[in-house]
Amino acid sequence: MKNIISNINKAFDHRIRLGIMSVLMVNEFADFNTLKELLGATDGNIASHTKALEKQKYIKVEKSFINRKPNTRYLATEKGKKAFQEHLDALEKLLSKDISIEKKKK
């Protein structure tokens, strides 16, 4: 049997990374605190998972100051958008496959 999960992108395995990319696919950008609040994650979770996505060049990080306070915001790159869409397509394909073990036995 062909490996039915071969097109699933390992970069999106973790729920926090999946959440970050989901937020960035439907928004132009999101800042650190927004991601933290939306995903119910800790500072460390957001920091480590955004670093992992940035390392893959799936997101871009912009740092600035707003009223003298540091602000970090994240944007999905074209590469990231493409990779995430391919990941979603692979999941949809997986879900639509007839992979029932019971059906195979009959």
TrEMBL record:
Pfam families given in the database record: HTH_34 (PF13601)
Superkingdom per UniProt: Bacteria
Name assigned to this protein: Transcriptional regulator
Winged helix DNA-binding domain boundaries: 16-95
Membrane-crossing segments per the record: none
Entry-linked Gene3D superfamilies: Winged helix-like DNA-binding domain superfamily/Winged helix DNA-binding domain
PANTHER family per record: BSL7504 PROTEIN
Matching SUPFAM superfamilies: Winged helix' DNA-binding domain
